[in-house]
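Checked the freezer inventory, then went back to the computational side. Two predictions to log before the end of the day. The first one is the construct we discussed on Monday; recording sequence and tokens without edits.
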Amino acid sequence: MLRYVIKRLLLIIPVILGVLIIVFFFQTVSGDDPVDQILTEGATEAMKEAKREELGLNDPIVVQFGRYVWKFVSQGDLGTSYKSGQPVTGEIMSRFPTTIKLALGSVLLSIIIGIPLGILAAVKQYTPTDSGLLAFSVLSASLPSFWFALLLISLFSVKLGWLPTSGLGTWKNWVMPVIVVSVASMSNIIRVTRSSMLETIRQDYIRTARAKGQAEYVIVFDHVLRNSLIPIVSAIGNTLGIQLGGSLIVESVFGLPGIGKYAVDAISQRNFPSLLGSVVILAITFSLVNLLVDLVYTVVDPRVKTSLFGKGKKKKPTAGKA
């Protein structure tokens, strides 16, 4: 198992390098001069040239890329923010807990609501209940997050005054952001749970269990759901990874100081180090989430553990006595 984990961690390296190459490429073709974001409008051309030389912007892009990667690997340095003048690593780490809380809270809500609704849709296949749940999942997946967020603010904050519009004061500040982020992922979990259970429920051993007279709830939860967890766990893991980087708009609308809002502000300010650092951290986090999901597979289904970690060694047959 340790060997497999180390192998997967090593595979994160080319992923991060690929992300860095793409972002550096777009920085090159964008034509933006970072010096214009750092210095004031009254700066002379000589001052700008001195600043470019200080930041190493006059070096070839390959040299800049290699220097950035080396500093990140050796020191964990993601550069310095053009706007605040502070290390990007520290600014991101201070915002990372907010993004994690939002992602985990929304995934938890999606699991609590999505899996039971998916089970209900599978058990009630081709009934009005099934059709209604499928329509709900499609509708929730189609809702624009910014529009849904503004709708909740208008109802619960402006008209009713029950919930605050922004900030991180109390638990009430998390209610609307968690609901908005969880809606789209909830629809995915409903559909995956339904389809996975329908595939399992047609198996021969399910018919055998019914023929033996087992209770329906035992069949649904102990046999069908238990053997349908692999796709469901995969959907939950992908949802968590996506929400870590996909809550950019939600964090901006509700004023949550997370990595999403930090990245959006960096884009509007042309703050390249902050944007690149956000992308790198989110890519690493997404890769680690995928690794965690693979490890959870081994708990859900022992057969996966055998296929992933089994050494595959066969014992040599012993010679029989004459």
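The second is the one RB wanted added to the comparison set:
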Amino acid sequence: MRKLVIRVSLVLVTLTVAGVGLRAFINSRIPLFGDSIHRVDTRERVVALTFDDGPHPRHTPRMLDLLDRHQVKATFFMMGRNVERHPDVVLQVLARGHEVGNHSYSHPRLVFMAPGRVRHEISRTDALLRSLGVTGDIHFSPPHGSKFVVLPYVLTQMGKLSVLSDVDVEEWKRPPAAVMVRSALEQVRPGSVMQFHDPLGEETLKAVDQVVTRLLAQGYRFERISELIKRRPNP
């Protein structure tokens, strides 16, 4: 842990000297350490479609119907407290062939938080997903995209992959579907990880429908995160 503290201190000094804002660094796609992905370097027209914050009793089943119509699979990163409330929806996601991941239990900002609390947020949700039959690796999508100091340390200790994205349409601003579609299509490229939020409702459903339609027409294929990461070069 002492080496970790020294390393973090050096990074902070470097950032200060360079004039880079700490907040900007925290929310960047550059982790200090640990295994993470925001895109895979490939020329093949493949992307991963991901959804955070669910499951939602109304909007998640509608998203599943949409994906079924397009015959594409996605990865749903779920909050533990929502898994507790809506286990039947989790089972629907699994039954339709999609992948399930961990998005913490209560969606806190996992920055400057005690390692034990961070681990509890993650392990509690893992246990809930396992109880519903989830097998294999359970990857992690950090709430708010935060990944500074403690979180990557805990994920490394737990042997977990941190899933970020390089296509983010900023749904938290509640833009109309047309704006999200334009933003997604401007950002996407082969190997991208696309981030949406299934509980956000009508405009997100419209946006995902149009984005998937356009990308399929351009020859893209959709893979689950576990499939996309297999395309990474061996270290």
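For RB: The domain at 36-106+163-231 is CATH 3.20.20.370 (TIM Barrel). The radius of gyration is 18 Å. Let me know if you want it refolded.
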